[in-house]
Amino acid sequence: MLHRFSTDISHIERPKLFTWPFHYVPHELSCLAAREVQQYLGSHPEWREEIARGKMFGVLVVEDARGELGFLAAFSGNLNGRNHHDYFVPPIYDMLRPGDFFRRGEAEISAINRTIKELEASEEYQSAMVALERARCDSEHALSELKAQLKERKKQRDRRRAEGESAEMLILESQRDNSELQRLKRAMRDAVAEALERYDGLRAEVDALKAERQQRSSELQMQLFAEFRILNARGQVRNLCELFAPTPQLVPPAGAGECAAPKLLQYAYLNHLRPVAMAEFWQGASPRGEVRHHGAFYPACNGKCKPILTHMLEGLAIEPNPLTQIVPAEPRILWEDSHIVLIDKPCGMLSVDGKSGVRSVEQWARERYADATGPMIVHRLDQSTSGILLLAKDKATHKAMQEQFVTRTVSKQYTALLDGVIEHESGRIDLCMKLDYDNRPRQMVAPDGKRSITEYRVVAVEEGHTRIEFYPLTGRTHQLRLHSAHPEGLNTPIVGDDIYGHEQHADLDDGHRLYLHASRLEFTHPHTQERIIVECKAEF
């Protein structure tokens, strides 16, 4: 499982601290290891089709007892229907091995599924379902037909009453009609109830099997999670149930412990190899709805891996989280009066206070405008996005300005530099977006997401990059970043996008920022009713 580098690495300086897996630039040793894994994958044509559909791989650079460096490789999930392949580290727990309790449990659940399908497809069940539907249709039809007849009879009685006919006879006819309607309602209700009773008797058996299936599946999953006994650098062991119990989700998500990173660290600890550097990279097509680039490196996922890796990294000397090390510049005031202030938010500064402790506009505003009433932050920009941000100095102004953003009477313009050249000079992107829960804060395109709309116009093409202006009509999280990178959008990420894009560009002046800037804001002043336009040119 331990592989030696095929090229000379003596000139490469070893990292002093282990990789912070949730936000990193891969070390040169990790990049070399990844290239060797990619070459190995290319030598196995039987995997080509599966990998082309998309899969995450990982490498872990390690030091053995003699102080020599090598690397381990892993894949997420399984490969070619198997958990074990000679080149890659084994799973933490192999649920696919023959005779394992998980395989036996799955077989029992599959047998319940087959029984459910057989019952639902049986002649008796189908006949009862059809009879119930027919009884309901017959009831509706008969009642509708009788009500139409009774309505016509009432019209005739009204005419006869107007012509002076005796009220006594008309009242008697009305009572007979009502009695006829009530008799039919009872008859139809009894017919439907009889059909429903027959169907419910059969359905109860199916529902009981489905409930049993759900219970068995949940118990089997928790039993499986308990078998994932996860090591850390101190030799401490905790299972998945224990690791996820303190989290908001309480129980592990499906697939927890099967990603590449936990597999790599577990094997290293079991075999007394010291972790030096780690990286995970994507091979193949992007998953539907997400943005993944072939060959690009990605951080470990938050939903499945963060509780696991937080435990596994205990005892290692780790790089600090780079997001907590950011010291952003101070905002620059662009326009101000007694009610409103507009600033140029620097890249790296949070809009509102966050857990990382990085300085925020909210903190800056509290310090500068101690007399302000109510919340000052009206809208937000991503931490990585620079540009115009509007603040309100009093509660009434804050409420009025938020209303303008909600009703979309605020006009916004962004400037960006795209990592490539796009096909059209202008257009509109209209996609449904939602949070990718396992990979927060990543967003994804999904039919059940919220609609997001962006109009765009190309300004220039500069040495293989596209300077573009965006005009968002909605304000979803990461909207412009996802619209740029997603295949159903522009399919060209914003330069410097460490979530949806490629590696940083050393040829650009600042290779450590997102090239996205809020460059123009137009709104109606809530007190003077004047239309205010503020512009702020991008520095890139």
Ends apart, CA distance between termini: 46 Å
Proportion in helices: 25-40%
| CATH superfamily heading of the largest domain | Pseudouridine synthase
Rg for CA atoms = 33 Å
Domain tally: 3
Class of the largest domain, according to the CATH hierarchy?
Alpha Beta
* Strand content range: 15-25%
Instruction: Give the beta-strand count.
Output: 16
Class derived from helix and strand content? alpha+beta
Order of helices and strands: HHEEHHHEEHHEEHEEHEHEEEEEHEE
Total of helices:
11
CATH topology of the largest domain: Pseudouridine synthase
Major sheet details:
10 strands, mixed
Low-confidence segments, given as residue ranges, are 504-509
Write a structural description.
The structure is a single chain. The protein has 540 residues and is an alpha+beta fold. The strands form three sheets. Strands 7, 8, 9, 10, 11, 12, 13, 14, 15 and 16 form a ten-stranded mixed β-sheet that branches. About 1% of the residues have low confidence. Helices cover 36% and strands 20% of the residues. Helix 3 runs antiparallel to helix 5 and helix 4 packs antiparallel against helix 5. A hairpin with a 5-residue loop joins strand 3 and strand 4. The protein has three domains: 157 residues, no CATH class; 120 residues; 204 residues, Pseudouridine synthase, CATH 3.30.2350.
Please describe the structure with a list of short key phrases separated by commas or semicolons:
3 domains, 11 helices, alpha+beta, 540 residues, 36% helix
Task: Give a quick precis of the structure.
With 540 residues, the chain is an alpha+beta fold.
